[in-house]
Specification:
This protein is mainly β. The chain has one helix and nine strands; from the N terminus they run E-E-E-E-E-E-E-E-E-H. The radius of gyration is 12 Å and the shape is globular.
């Protein structure tokens, strides 16, 4: 796991872009905990880190596509995004990268 920030860096209900091993990740602090997804919407490349959190999902800021925070599954038309494991401990946030959906297919 790679340390990405302090827990105080991302307020509850918000997201933040970060880079882990050269990969752009959207990190979210939601009611259900901490979540990390690839930061690029598969539709038009919108930054999911700038999206709105609503009902355990993130809404892409460009075209309102929705993705589940827990697993990156699409909740509207189109493909999903890769979800990554996140742990928050001792005031720090850690991310472990998962295999991307593109390479897993």
């Amino acid at each position: 796991m790679i340390e990405v920030c302090s827990t105080s860096d991302v307020p509850l209900g918000e997201g933040r872009a970060t880079t882990v091993d050269g990969r752009r990740i959207a990190l979210f602090h939601a009611e259900g905990g901490w979540f990390a997804l690839d930061d690029e919407c598969p539709h038009r490349g919108g930054p999911l880190s700038d999206g709105i959190l609503a009902d355990s999902c993130v809404v892409c800021p460009l075209h309102d596509r929705r993705f589940a925070l827990a697993d990156g599954a699409p909740l509207t038309d189109g493909g999903g995004v890769t979800a990554h494991r996140v742990e928050a401990r001792a005031g720090r946030v850690w991310v472990a990268l998962a295999e991307s959906l593109a390479t897993a297919a």
